[in-house]
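[Meeting: bench + compute handoff]

Bench side (C.D.) handed over the final construct sequence. Compute side (W.E.) agreed to return the predicted structure before the next meeting so the bench team could plan truncations. Sequence as handed over:
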Amino acid sequence: MAAFTQKKQALHDKLAGCLVINKTEPTKGKKILTIVVIALTVIIPILVTIGILIVMPILFSVDSTKIKAGDAVRRSDLSQILINAEIYYDQNNDLYPLNLNALEAMLKVDGSRLPKDPSSNQPYDYCVTGDRQNYGIGTQLEDKSPVYMERSVKQTLMPCSLNSNKICGSDGYYCLDSNYLDSIY
C-alpha cells in the first residue's frame, strides 16, 4: 500500500498519523565521493594487477633478448676471428698466429681491432698447436642451451687446450677450431 499512496505511507503510518520525511537524500558531491572511493578501493587495484601481469613477461623477455643478442655477438666475433686467422695463415707461410696479439698486430695495419667479449671487454680464449697448423677459440655464452652447445666443437676434437677451467661444448663454453670454416663452406 505504501507504493500506492501519494506520500508513500504504509497502513500503520496512516493509522498512527505518521509521515516519514527523508531529509538525507544523497547530494551530488556525496555520489561522486562514493564513486571515487569505490574506484580507489576496487577498480584501481584490479587494473594495477592486470598491468603487472601484462608487463612482467615483457620485462623478462627483454632480459632474455639481451642475453641472446650478447651471445649472437660472441658467436659472430669468433667467426670474425676465424676468418682473420685464415688471412694471417695465408700471409705468414701457412702458420697460424701464436696468440691473439699477433693476429691483432696484423689487423692494426688496416686500422682494425680484434673483437672482445661484449660484457667483460676481455679477449676471447685462443690456443694454437706447437706446429701452428691448427688453433682453437672459445668463449663463455650466457645462454647455455643445447642448441648452441651442439654447434660447438667438442673438447675431444679441439687441437689444443683453450682454458683449463672450461670444457668445450658443455656448460655454455662455446668453441671453434681451424676446421670449422671447412665444415660450413
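W.E. noted at the follow-up: The radius of gyration is 37 Å. C.D. will use this when planning the next construct.
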